[in-house]
Amino acid sequence: MKARGWGTGHVAGLDSANLKTLLGDVASGRLQLPDFQRDWKWDDDRIRAIIATVTLDYPLGVTMTLETGGASRFRTRPLTGAESGAEREPSLLLLDGQQRLTSLFQALCVADVPVRTVDTRGRSVRRWYYVDIAKATGSPSDRDEAIVSVPEDRILRRDFGRKVVHDLSDTSGECGAGLFPLRIVFDTQRVNAWRREYEKADEERNFDRWAKFEDQVLHPVRSFQVPMINLPSATSMDAVCAVFERVNTGGVPLNVFELLTATYAGNRAFTSRTGDYYDLPSVWRSIKEHLAERFAVLGRLEVDLDDGLSNSDFLQAVALVRTWNLKQQDSTVGVSCKRRDLLELPLGDFEELAPRLKEAFEWVGLFLFTQCIVHAADLPYRTQVVPLAAVRAILGNELENPEARQKIAQWYWCGVLGEMYGGSTETRFTRDVEQLIAWIRDDGEVPDTIADSYFFPERLLTLKTRNSAAYKGIYALLIRQGAVDWHYTDGPMPPGLLVEYGVDVRQVFPKNWVRRNLDESYPASSIINKTPLSLRAAQALNGAPAAFLEPLAAAADMRPEWFDDVISTHLIDAKALRANDYVTFFEARAAALEDLVYQAMGKRTTVVRDTPDEDGVR
How distant is the alpha carbon of residue 605 from its chain centre? Predict the structure, then answer.
C-alpha cells in the first residue's frame, strides 16, 4: 500500500489514502467531481453512521478516482462544501465515493459551517456533529449512539423543544456536556485547546477519559486509511462510463447524456473559440421546447423535459445519421447507435447534425399528426420515431413525393401493428435506416420490419389496454379512416380538435352488461368493444346501446337512420347495436378491424405464430 494513496501509470491499482490527506485534497480542489456526478444527498442518519465507522477504524468502501489530462476530458466541479477550491485545475476526478467523502469532509473539515442535510422525513436541516466522550470510550457497540447530531444553533433540547439540555454554542458548554466537536478533529492546535478546557472541568476524571478518547477515537480518525482505485488518464470514455455505473450501485444509473454533458463542457477547443463552455442541457432544452410546442405527441413540457421524446432518443438519431454518413465514405463502418457510438460522438459532429435532426423530428411530429397520433400517451412506440427521424435527416425532401410517403406509412404501421419495436431496438434501428433508405430509393428489397410483421385476428381479443402498441395503433387508425364523433357530428374527428373534444377510447357495450348476459368468449375489455369518442359523447353512454342511441340521435338533431351512418364510420354494425346484439356486433366489428389493420400494413397474415402478450412481447 502506498502511503499517499495515489496510483500512477497505465493500469488501475488498489492503494490507500490517509483520510486527512484525502479531505485536504478535496478542500484544495486537487480532487474534484466530473460534472456528470449527481448532487450529494446523504441524510443525517447516514452521516452519523459513516462517522461512527471511521472512529472505529472499520473498513470503508473502495473509493475510485480518474487521473486528469487524458483524452476523456470533463467539465469539473468541487465537492459540496469545498467551493473555495473550484478555481484550481484538479489532478483527480472522483468517480465513486462522492457521498462518503462529501459527508466526511463537511462533518470533519468545515469548521464554521453546519452540514446541510435532510432528516428522516426528508426535511432540509443543518447539523453539527459531535462525539459523546463517555459513550465513545465505552463499548464499541455503543459507538453509533456516541455520534451526536446537533441543530444549527448548537442547542440540544427535549420535551418538544421546551427544555434546554445542553448549550454547545461555546467551548465551555461543549466541555461541560462532554461532547467533542468533530469539525476540529484535524486541527491539532484547536484540539489541544479544547482538551485543556475539558480537563479543567473535572481534572481527575477527565484526564483519564481523554487519554482513552484520544486512543480509541481521535487516533483512528487521524490515521484512517481509505482504500482507493485510481484509473489512469488513458482510460477510455466508454470504460469510465461502464466503471461508474458498476460501482455506483447505490445511486441512479448514469446515462450517456449526462456523460456527454460533462465531456462537451470540458471541450477546450470550443471554450477557446467561444470563451464559454458548451451547455448541452440548454441546447437540448431549446430543441425539445421547440418540438413539444408544435407537436404534443413529442412530449409534454409541463410533465418533464424528457416526457415523450427523450435526450437519449435524440442522441441515438444523431449517431445513426453520423455513422450512416461515415459508411458512405468507408464501407467497413457500420451504421449504429449503440452506447459506444454515443459516447464517441464528437462535439463538432453534434453541432453540425443537431439542427438537421431537430428539423427531422419536427417532420416526424407532422407525420404522426397526419396519422391521427397527437398525444404522447397515444404514441405506440417512442423508439420507432428514432430511425424515422434519421431517415428524414438523410433523405430530406426525397420523402415528399407520394410514393415515398406511402412507403413510410406502410413501414410505420407494420412496425406498430406487428409490434416489432417491443423488444431490443438498436439492431432494428440500424436495419431500418439502411433498408428504408434503399427501398425508398428503389435500390433495395422491402425492409425486414415490413416483411417480418404479422397481425393475427386472435390478437384483437387480447388488446385491452394502452400497454400494447397495436391497441394504440387501432385507436389512431379508426380516427384516421374517418370516424365521426357521436356528439360533434359535423364530420370526421379532426386531429387538431382531439384534445379540445376530450377524445379517448370508450366502451361501446358496458362491461357489466356483457358480464351479466354473456360469457368471456367475447371480452368486453377488448379493443373490439371500444371506439374513439369525445367526453360529451361518452357521458351519454348509459346502459346498453339500445338505451343511449336514441337520445344521442335526438341531441344531434338526426333521424335514426342518419345517425346509423355516423355509427358506421366507426366500423360498427348499427343494427346490431340497436338490437343489443353483442355477439353479432362483436363478430362484425372484429372482421372490420382486421381489414382496417391489413389495409394499413399493406399485407394480410398467411402464417401461424404465437400470439404476443399484452405488452407486445412474443
Answer: 37
Whether residue 383 has pLDDT greater than 70: yes
Judge whether 416 and 379 are in contact, CB under 8 Å: no
Contacts (Cβ under 8 Å, ≥6 apart) of 292: 298, 299, 300, 301, 308, 309
What is the structure's pLDDT at 618? 42
Rounded Cα gap, residues 322 and 335, in angstroms: 8
Which residues are within 8 A (CB) of 493 and not within 5 positions of it... i.e. 6 or more apart? Answer: 372, 479, 483, 484, 485, 501, 503, 532, 534
- The C-alpha R_g of the chain, in whole angstroms, comes to 33
d(CA 77, CA 37): 9
Tell me the CA distances in angstroms from 373 to 110, 380, 475, 481, one per residue in order: 56, 9, 9, 13
Q: If we measure between CA atoms, which residue out of 276, 306, 273, 274 comes closest to residue 288? A: 306
- State how far the Cα of 328 lies from the Cα of 470, in Å rounded to an integer: 35
pTM: 0.72
Report how far Cα 261 is from the mean position of its chain's Cα atoms: 15
Q: What is the pLDDT of residues 9-47, one digit of tens each?
A: 344 556 789 999 999 999 999 999 987 777 778 899 999
Question: Buried b vs exposed e over 40-55: b needs ≥16 C-beta within 10 Å?
Answer: bebbbeebbebbbbbb
Task: Tell me the CA end-to-end span of the chain in Å, nearest whole number.
Answer: 54
**Are 616 and 419 within 8 A, CB to CB?**
yes
Give the CA dihedral 593, 598, 600, 602, nearest 10 degrees: -170
Across-strand partners of 462? Answer: none
To which H or E segment does residue 597 belong?
A: helix 582-601
Tens of pLDDT along 85-139? 888 999 999 988 888 999 999 999 987 899 999 888 888 999 999 999 999 998 8
Contact between residue 101 and residue 109 where contact means Cβ atoms under 8 Å apart: no
Q: Which three cell numbers stand for residue 415?
A: 412496425
